[in-house]
Amino acid sequence: MRSSLLTGAVAAALSFSGLAAAADAEAWKARSIYQVMIDRFARTDGGSVDCKLYEFCGGTWKGLTNKLDYIQGMGFDAIQISPVIKNMEEDTSVGEPYHGYWSEDLTQVNPKFGTKEDLKELVDELHKRDMFLMVDVVVNHMAAKFDNKPPPKVDYSKFKPFNDEKYFHSYCNVTEWENSTNYQNCWLYPYGVALADLKTESSDVVSLFSKWIKDLVSTYSIDGLRIDAAKHVNDEFLPKFVEAAGVFSFGEVLTGVTEDMCRYQNKTKNLLPGMPNYLDFYPLNEAFNGGSFERLQEIKIQAVDACNDTLALGSFIENHDMPRFASQNQDLALAKNAMTYVIMNDGIPTVYQGQEQHFIGGETPSNREPLWTSDYNTEAPLYVLAKTLNKVRKNAIKKSPEYLKKPSEVLIAETNHFCQSKGPAENAVVFCITNKSSKGDSYEMAVPGFRDSDEVVEVISCATTTADAMGQINAYMGQGEPKVWVKRSAIEGTDICPKTTVDGPKKDSGAAASKGAATGVLMAAVLGAASLLL
Ligand SMILES: *[C@@H]1O[C@H](CO)[C@@H](O)[C@H](O)[C@H]1NC(C)=O
Ligand SMILES: *[C@@H]1O[C@H](CO)[C@@H](O)[C@H](O)[C@H]1NC(C)=O
Ligand SMILES: *[C@@H]1O[C@H](CO)[C@@H](O)[C@H](O)[C@H]1NC(C)=O
Ligand SMILES: *[C@@H]1O[C@H](CO)[C@@H](O)[C@H](O)[C@H]1NC(C)=O
Ligand SMILES: *[C@@H]1O[C@H](CO)[C@@H](O)[C@H](O)[C@H]1NC(C)=O
C-alpha cells in the first residue's frame, strides 16, 4: 500500500493530468461509492428485457459506460463493479454465473460483460469524469460445476493460472463457522458449484496472485479493490496481496462481532486497509425493525476503540449478498433514514444499485433485480435524497478537509432517534434519523451540535433555524423524515438549498405532539408553545 498525504482532489487532479497517482485510503475516504452488478445494471442496447434472476440478464460494461450520467447525477464519484474475470461457462443447479464470482481463467476478461477494450473504455470514461473504479476480485477459490456427489470431481487443467491440483486445498466442506482452520481451508458452499479452495498460504499461489493483480490493476488503471470472502483466506495472504495491488482495498469480512472484524484492521499491523462496515450494518437494521438505536451507539464506540481507522470502512445498508432493506419493511421514510445514515456517517458511503429505487428483493437472487425495471428514474425519492446528501457531504469536505479526519460524535442515541455530528465545530454537519416511519407523529426535539446563534439550514427540506445560546436547534420532526443540518454560511453560493423557508411546526400536525426523545432532550410539549420558539 502506498502511503500518501494526497487529498482526493489532489489525487484526482494528478491522475487527470496524466500523472499516475495510486488511489490510497486517504483518496478513497473523500469518495462516495455506487455498487454495480454488471449483469443487472444496463444492457448495451440500453433496453429492458424480462429475465430469470438466476440466469444471465445481459448487462455489460458498455451498458454501464452509457449510463454513467445516472450514477454521477446522484453525486457518486466512484463505482464498485462485480468481478471482471472469465468465469466457468456451465449452467448449474444453482443457476448461471451471471454474478461473475465463479472464476475459471484469470488471464481473460469475462466475455459475457464485453471485451478488454470495453472495460478500458469504461475506465477512461470514469476517469474523464473524475470518478474512481473499484473492482471486485475473488482470491479464495476457482469454480467448477458440481453434480452434488461429494467429493467434487474437478478438472484443474481448466483453471488459469492455477492449472494444477497442487494449488488447492484437498476437499472438505466448511462446517465449522467458528473454526478459522475449517472456514479458511475447506471449500465454501459445495452445492451446484464446487468452489475449489486455493492454497493461499503457499508461496506459489502468493506469487502468481501478486503478479496477476499488479498486472490487472495497471492494465485497467483500477483505483481500488474489493476482495471477496477475505475472511476465508489465511491472514498472512491479505497484506501481501494488497501491497502487490498498490491500491486501496476493502476486504469482505462478514461478521458483526467487533473483535473479529477489527483484528483485520489492527493498530499495529493491518491485514486490510478497509472493509465494508458490517459492524454498523446489523444494529442499524435492527433499529428499523423493532429494535432501538442504543445498540448502534455501543458498537460504534467499540469499533473506534478496536479498529485502527473506522473512517476507512465502507458505510452501507444494502449489498448484493443481503436482503434489501425494503424487503423487511417497505415504508419509504425508513429507507430515507437508512440512506441518510449511510451517506452522512463516518467512512466511505456505499450504495448498492437499486437501493435508490427502493427495490424490495429479499434473499439472493431476489436482491439482484435488473435496474432497468426502474426505468432509471432520476426523480425517485431516494435518488433525489442521495443526490442532496452526496452534495452536502462533498461540500463539507471541501469546506473542511477535517471532516474526514475524526470519527463523528453521537449526540442522541435512544429508542426512536439517532443524531450525530460530523466535522469541526465551525462547520459541523448534524443529522438525526428516526425509526418512527412515515406514520410518525409531529413533534419538536432539541438537537445540540451547533454554536450560539448559528444560522442553520435543514438541507432536505431547505428550512432554516437559528441555534440558541446553548447551540441547540429546535427540530420539527414529522412523518418519520430524517433531518440533516449545516450552517447556512457553509452552503452559501452552492446549489444546495438556494431558496429556503423558515422552519416551523408541520402543517399536518393535527396529532398531539408526542414525547419520545431522549432524557435530557428538551421537548416543546404543545404546538402552541412551539410557535414562541420561532
Ligand atoms: C456441507 O455442510 C453443510 C453443513 O454445514 C451441509 O448442509 C451440506 O450438505 C454439506 N455439503 C456437502 C456436499 O457435504
Ligand atoms: C478446525 O478445523 C480443522 C479443519 O477442518 C480440523 O482439523 C480441526 O480439528 C478443527 N479444530 C477444532 C478445535 O475443532
Ligand atoms: C495486532 O497484531 C499483532 C501482530 O499480529 C498482535 O500481536 C496484536 O495482539 C494485535 N492486536 C490486536 C488488538 O488485535
Ligand atoms: C492506521 O490508520 C492510519 C490512518 O488513519 C494509517 O495512516 C496507518 O497506517 C494505519 N495503521 C496501520 C498499522 O496500518
Ligand atoms: C422503533 O423503535 C421502537 C422502540 O424500540 C420499536 O418499538 C419500533 O418497532 C421501532 N420502529 C420500527 C419501524 O421498527
UniProtKB/TrEMBL annotation:
The lineage of its organism: Eukaryota, Fungi, Dikarya, Ascomycota, Pezizomycotina. InterPro entries: A-amylase-like, A_amylase_C_dom, GH, GH13_cat_dom, Glyco_hydro_b. It catalyses: Endohydrolysis of (1->4)-alpha-D-glucosidic linkages in polysaccharides containing three or more (1->4)-alpha-linked D-glucose units. It comes from Sordaria brevicollis. Its cofactor is Ca(2+). CDD domains: AmyAc_euk_AmyA. Residues 35-393 form the Glycosyl hydrolase family 13 catalytic domain. This is alpha-amylase. Disulfide bonds join C51-C57, C172-C186, C262-C307, C462-C497. Transmembrane segments: none annotated. Belongs to the glycosyl hydrolase 13 family. The keyword Metal-binding applies. Its EC number is 3.2.1.1. Residues 1-22 form the signal peptide. One of its GO terms (biological process) is carbohydrate catabolic process. Keywords: Calcium, Carbohydrate metabolism, Disulfide bond, Glycoprotein, Glycosidase, Hydrolase, Metal-binding, Signal. Substrate binds at W102, H141, R226, G256, D321, R368. The active site is at D228 (nucleophile), E252 (proton donor). The keyword Lipid metabolism does not apply. GO terms for molecular function: alpha-amylase activity; calcium ion binding. The record marks D321 as: Transition state stabilizer.
